[in-house]
Amino acid sequence: MKVFSFVLVFLITVVLGYVVSIPMGPAPPVAPLLDPNHGFWQNMYSEDQLAEETIQLEGLSAPVKVSYDENLIPHIFAQNEEDLYRVQGYVTAQHRLWQMEFQTMAAAGRISEIVGPVALELDRMTRRKGLAYGAELGYEFVKENYPEMLDLLEAYADGVNQYIASLDDARLPVEYKILNYRPENWSSYKSLLLLKYMSDMLVGDRDLQYSNLRKILGEEKLNVLFPEFPAENDPVIEAERVWDFEPIQVENPDAGSYPNDELVIDPLPQPEEGVGSNNWAVAGWKTKNGNPILANDPHLSLNLPSLWYSMQLSTLEHTVKGATLPGALGVISGFNENIAWGVTNATKDARDWYKITFQDDSRKTYRYGSEWREANHRIEEIKIKGQEPYYDTVVYTHYGPVVYDRTFGSERQDVNFALKWTAHMGSNEQLTFIKMNKAKNHDDYNDALNHFTAPAQNFVFASVSGDIAMRIQGKFPVKWEKQGKFFMDGADPQMEWQAFIPNEQNPSTLNPERGFVSSANQHPVDPSYPYYVFDNSYEHYRNRRLNNRLREMNSITIDQMKELQFDDYYLHAAEALPVMLELLGNEIGEGEKAEKYLNELKSWDFYADPNQKGPTLFYNWWNKTYNQIWNDWMEWDISVVYPNNYETVRLLKLSPESEFFDHKGTEAIETARDHVRNGFAEMVESMSEWGQEEGDYTWANYKRTSIQHLVPQFRPFSVENVYTGGGRGILNATSERHGASWRMVVELGTPIKAFGIYPGGQSGNPGSKFYSNFISKWANGDYLNFDLRTEDQEENLLFQTTFTN
Amino acid sequence: MKFILFLLLSIVLVIFLNPFLPFWGVMIGLGLLSLLVQPEGGAAFFGGGFGMGLAWMGLAFYLSAETGSNLPDKMAQLFGLGNGTYMILATGFLGFLLGAFSSWSGQLLRNMLKKKPQNIYMG
């Protein structure tokens, strides 16, 4: 009896202990998570409560002091660069380990390892685009050409790894605890992979959609709706710029073979609308204090932990401060004692698609001119949580990987397309930032940029010595007219990229007469630039608003530049609404609501401020009208590109009777008037409904900006319904899920005055008080002081740590 | 009396052992404790259970108060539990279960191993 009761109770105990230590479906093991000594309870500590006076870090040549200011921004004071980056790695990992690893796992196509089979298709896509392949080439390139760079990358990785080695269960970031896995070691390769990830986030192409649409509409109509340059082109590099170089000429193939209408496949996922950025610099003579002022705000998906992490990095030779990317070395957008720089995306159709004709089913050779070329087969092993690994064979041609083939996507047609992308070419973007961090003048800036391949960026520059500059940098193929706008036949050698634009012929400007440089993702140049320039996603509103403001402003102050970053003027509405009201006339239908909305629209000042109703009504009306106009195309059920807002407004205004407004399927002949009126009626209906369900339809309440945790299912770790204005195509580009992921304004006087803010917090830990503490300031258009600190400065210190060997 | 003593000893054991050992180490510790201290069945079950449950709940409560973090609320929402108070209760309940069965096992093991007194006389 005694034996029996012991065995029974003991078994219950063992089973109980076992059950609480294993995951239950998607839920993590419950006991390790709830154990208050090791589980999530330990993640409630904020970083200042865990502050250590000294930390031992092997491999340092001298002690390194780190001062955290009141916002938990670390200021690292090292004797040399190798020590600096070793500590940068350690400190970044302390605050952002989970995020930096998760992002590189995503870039490597390894999310299935963490979350299981749900991510398999995503991982296959990532791998088939060749991100890891590109990073491997990048790693080899750095190893061969820049061994001293590799030492710094290794030092950073070692710093991260020493932190991981010191990590106990209690300090493990809470996401690891919930998802039930542990960090693996960091490596230099992962730092390079992270920069490839940025490429992927920022680069798109519409080759498919243009190919389809051209087939349907024909070249002539396509050119009407999609002009290569807009009527009011206000490019990045001022239109007056004279190009005084001899451009490289490329052979334009026989017109007969291109574009080929038979080439159609499914599209790659594209970067989200609303991903873009602003940057500008004004010359000293236009500012109140006589110093140049530089501003930068990259717009990206709004996430927590924030993409950016602020730091000051100092050695005996240089001191730089600004926004870093956790996982990459140095500062990405920032300033030092001599210069400031910033980035915006300068996409220029960097991806092209080539149709591959294989000799037979083995896919070992493919046609190229009159010969058969050999293809490489790369086998991707995708580990899956709770399952056997998945093996995916990806065929690589000399163009690049065959993304879609018989095993992946595109069930409808048996197609093989190879992706040619500058991100697959060996390059060393990391070196650009290392050099820029130490740059002292315009020459150093140019030298740093020469190493930058992808993703192409508009690099703005200003210096204490009074220079302002802009350069569009990336590795750009020299293209013949319309090359790569549509699909190309990979068997025809004439379709190849034949040369690259030399760095010194990339569009750039130094101290232009107008007294400012600026970029907002618009066309890079005026048509006089001697190379073919094309991209689908060029901006038409922010650039004009920005340049108009900068042209008319004088004796500019830092505060005015902050206001400009937060400017809510809705230029698209200002141009479209009067046209729409005119077309609408008195045909507003029945009901009080319609009249009320109309009056609210008429009295609106075109500012998309959070407390305004106008932007909500306009936004809604515009979308309904836009859908009405292009409804015909949407019904084709084929992936095509739609005319942008700018061209659509022009069509409404200049040719309201245009044939494009007529829907072919109906008997009546529709004009702009019909669509605007139908759009209005739909808007009234949907807004009344919305008003009944949700109440207040002021802009912030309607827009509902949310800053989402990197794992969207972790909603409690997100910050939702942020009260802030702005939107797509507005300088303050804060839409539902995108917006200014970092705002910086720097006045290059003596001393330098700097301000910065981002929607998040320095800590990646959702339990820390530094996790999301910047968000309310960011939403109000407020900034943090970003002045450079000296090593012995005492004020506003949170704590200090000394790293010793 | 033994119950109170065992309860206190259990709490002390969890507080001092748990920072260094995972939860299953503490379970073994509680089993051994009950083997040594020899409480009655009920005292072992409830003493060990409340010992580990209260120690866990107390620490969870203390950490919440000390840090002022809203993480328990976020975790509670993530797991569909309402608010952070339920996380403290869940932690206490889990501690109770683990502690109770561990101590009871130890007590029953002792019972089993104990030589029966009558054997001495009946030889």
From TrEMBL, chain A:
Keywords: Hydrolase, Zymogen. SUPFAM superfamilies: N-terminal nucleophile aminohydrolases (Ntn hydrolases). Gene3D superfamilies: 1.10.1400.10, 2.30.120.10, Glutamine Phosphoribosylpyrophosphate, subunit 1, domain 1, Penicillin Amidohydrolase, domain 1. Belongs to the peptidase S45 family. This is Penicillin acylase family protein. It comes from Algoriphagus limi. The lineage of its organism: Bacteria, Pseudomonadati, Bacteroidota, Cytophagia, Cytophagales.
From TrEMBL, chain B:
Keywords: Membrane, Transmembrane, Transmembrane helix. The chain crosses the membrane at residues 6-36, 43-65, 85-106. This is Uncharacterized protein. It comes from Algoriphagus limi.
